[in-house]
Every structure is written in structure tokens, then in C-alpha cells.
Amino acid sequence: MRAVEVAIVGGGAVGAACARAAALRGLKVAIFEPGPVPAAASPASAGLLAAQIEPGDDGLVSLFVRARDLYEPLGPALRETTGIDIGFWRPGIASLAFDEPAADRLKEDVARQRQAGLRCDWLDAAEIGERWPGAAPDGLGALYAPEDGALDPEALTRACLADARRLGATLHGEKVDGLAMSQGRLAGILTARGTTPVEHVVVAAGAWSPQIRGLPRPLPIEPVRGQMAATAWPDGTPPTILYQDRGYVLARGGEAVLGSTMERAGYDSRVTNEGLAQIFRGAVRLLPALITQPVQRMWAGLRPATPDGRPILGRDPEVERLWYATGHGRNGILLAALTGDIIVELLAGGAPDIDITSLSVNRFQ
Ligand SMILES: Cc1cc2nc3c(=O)[nH]c(=O)nc-3n(C[C@H](O)[C@H](O)[C@H](O)COP(=O)(O)OP(=O)(O)OC[C@H]3O[C@@H](n4cnc5c(N)ncnc54)[C@H](O)[C@@H]3O)c2cc1C
Questions:
Q1: Residue range(s) occupied by CATH 3.30.9.10 in the chain
Q2: Helix/strand/coil (H, E, C) string of 64-111?
Q3: How far is CA 205 from CA 41, 177, 364, in A?
Q4: Residue 215 clears pLDDT 90, i.e. is over it
Q5: pLDDT of 138-189, one tens digit each?
């Protein structure tokens, strides 16, 4: 193979978005992706763009909102160049409270977000009933983020890969075993077929990133299992996205997509009775009409989680031309396109117009 400028290790949503962004910049890109492995996060994901629902810490809200808003133009752009519809949909997301402490927390969150200039409303129980008839009859109220939404994560990954290839990127069905180093400098990547010389390497192998040999530091990324299920969407209920304390119901393609668990089960991506019971309980509380719907599918995937819940983005402090785009935890679909833009700005020698200091791998030293 000819030397490539940028090798992307992993072709999940994050690697695919990095590959597309790099190819769009005119860089010569090779994506290494043997699978996806059955436990990969991207195809398992719900694809929520829950920027104002899931920020977890205040510092991430503006990053999340910016990431979400990128999909507004990206959806039509990918449809035009690849013919693939990524299912970008912006009906808003309602995060429901079922007890007073949760209601108080969400009300504070609404106030904070409004103060930051974001659109966000508190809906009381009567308003919930009007907007979503039959939803959460025992809900006390909801934080409603009208600009949040969802997309189809499998279609997003496929579209970014297709667009990257259209722009000249090559896709190699190979696992990367490790980095090839020469006198402390990055020389290439190692696969079963030997060494491929490359200039830059982007580590985007999700929960498997720490397993790449020759990384200059251990990556504190652990797999966190998320179980999911899908039932038929109940007739007569308008399509919507409802959320509560980490359980959610999302309408997609005639189905109700239900999620999810957060479990430390190593690299085991099987579904369990306990996990499914939790999902179904949460979903039926949000939308009682689901109780009689036939279950159609169930699956699980492994989120790449860091100790502080933030992704690892940016350069390696010691090895030049080694970049991290990994550890996206619960929000890697939301962050995929923005991650691609940030990484490519760095690869091209520029500085992203967004402060990513707190996402540096350095913070774990
Ligand atoms: C059940 C569930 C629900 C989720 N819901 C949401 C949601 O609603 N919204 C949201 O934003 N996020 C959600 N997430 C999180 C999101 O899916 C992840 O953060 C995101 O998909 C991570 O993408 P990735 O490309 O880094 O990892 P992955 O999608 O896991 O991709 C990593 C890829 O690397 C490949 N790979 C592994 N090792 C190697 C190697 N050595 N060489 C080459 N390739 C390799 C694998 O085959 C795999 O395809 C959810 C995750 C799960 C599991």
C-alpha cells in the first residue's frame, strides 16, 4: 500500500466522521475497520441528540449544543452526496420528573439553560398531557428542550464512510494491532499484513482503543454496556422522544426504540433479563401504551467510557502526529461530527475555535 497521510483506527461513528472530515480537507485517508465488532457502540446506539438533556456537567452544554446543530446542515449534505438519509429529526426531547427532587433539579436546569440563552421550557403535568396524550400520567412535569432530537446512528456511520470514500479515502477491513514507532517517532501502523507507513494516526477504536499496542500511555477507557430493545410504536400515539433519569423511548421507523442500561460487564455485550426488565419498566412509565406492544428486537453495545464522562480529544503530548478521538461515553453520536471537525483542524495544523483543553488525554496523568 502507498503511504497514507492519515490512518483512522476504527470505523464507528467517530472514526467515520473523522475520516470524512479529513478527506473533505483533501488529506489522503485510510480507515482501518475489521467489523464492526458485534459489541460496537455506534450501531447499538439510540442516536439521541440530547444536548440539553444529558450534559452531565455544565462545561459540556455549549459543546453539546454546537455538536447537535452541526447535523442540521450535515443531514441534507450527506443525502445529496451519498443518497443516505441519516434520519435527522428535531421534535424536541422531554425529560420527565416523577418525584419532587427530580422536578426541582430539572427546574433548576431549565433556569440555568435559559440564562445561558438556550431554548428550554418547564412543562407542568397538564401541559405534558396536552402535548403527548397518554404519556407519563404520573409525571409531575418535564424539562423540554425543543431543539434536541435524534438521528439514525447506523445510517450516520454508513453515510460518513461512503462520503469519505467518495472523496478518496480507502477502507481496509483490518484490525490495527499496534503503532509502529521508530526512535520514539510515529512511523506507521501494524496489522496482520505488516507495517503501513503513515504520517498521522487517529485513535478512534471506541472501547477497544486501550488495546492498541504501542500507545505511549494507558488510556483510561472502560466498556460500559448499554442494553436496548425495540417494540412496535403504539397506534394513535404521535411519534416523540421521552426521557427520564437515563431511560428513554424514541420513535423511529414505526418502532419504539427503548433504552438503556449502564453496566460494567467487561467486554460482554449480551442482553440480560435484568437489563431488559429495567428498560421495559422505564419505558412503560413514560408511555403506558407500550405495555401491550410486541417486542421486536433486543441488543446491546459497549460505550467507551472515561472516568470523568468526557471524551479524549486531541494530540498526544509526547508522540507527534498521534491523535485521540475516543472515550465518547454516552454521547458519541451527538459528538461525532464535531469531533471530526476538531480533529481535522488539528491535523491540518490549525487550532479549533473551541476550547478542548479539558478533553486532553493529559488530564489523566
Ligand atoms: C446502547 C447504547 C445507546 C447509546 N445511545 C446514544 C445516544 O442516544 N446518543 C449518543 O450520542 N450516543 C449514544 N451512545 C454512545 C455512542 O454510541 C458512542 O459514544 C459512540 O458510538 C462511540 O463511537 P466510536 O466510533 O468511538 O465507537 P464504536 O462505535 O464502538 O466504534 C469503534 C470501532 O472500532 C473498531 N475497532 C476496534 N478495535 C479496532 C482495532 N484494533 N483496529 C481497527 N478497528 C478497531 C470496532 O470494530 C468498531 O467498529 C449509546 C451507546 C450505546 C451502547
A1: 90-147+222-305
A2: HHHHHHHHHHHHHHHHHHHCCCCCCECCCEEEEECCHHHHHHHHHHHH
A3: 10, 11, 19
A4: yes
A5: 999 999 999 999 999 999 999 999 999 999 999 999 999 999 999 889 999 9
CATH 3.40.50.300 is the classification of domain 4-74+153-220+307-364: no
Ligand 1, atom 35, lies closest to the CA of: 10
Residue nearest atom 37 in ligand 1 by C-alpha distance: 205
Ligand 1: nearest atom to the Cα of 329: 19
* Cα angle 40, 45, 47; round to 5: 140
- Judged by DSSP in three states, 139 sits in coil
CA of 303 to the centre of ligand 1 (A): 6
On whether the CB atoms of residues 165 and 132 are closer than 8 A, the answer is no
CA of 302 to the centre of ligand 1 (A): 7
What does DSSP say about strands 121-124 and 48-49: parallel, antiparallel, or unpaired?
unpaired
**pLDDT, tens digit (0-9, with 9 covering 90-100), for 90-136:** 999 999 999 999 999 999 999 999 999 999 999 999 999 999 999 99
Residue 301 CB less than 6 A away from ligand 1? yes
Contact present, 30 and 8 (Cβ < 8 Å): yes
Q: What angle do CA 89, 118, 145 make, to 5 degrees?
A: 40
Would you tell me which CATH number, out of the four given (3.50.50.60, 2.60.34.30, 1.10.150.120, 3.30.9.10), belongs to the domain 90-147+222-305? 3.30.9.10
The ligand 1 atom nearest the CA atom of 177: 41
Ligand 1 pocket member 139 (CB < 6 A): no
Q: Which residue has a Cα nearest atom 21 of ligand 1?
A: 42
pLDDT (average), residues 9-36: 97
Measured in Å, residue 349 CA sits from the centre of ligand 1 at: 27
Provide CATH 3.50.50.60 ranges for the chain. 4-74+153-220+307-364
Between the CA of 174 and the centroid of ligand 1 the distance, in Å, is 17
**What is the distance in A from the centroid of ligand 1 to the CA of 242?**
23
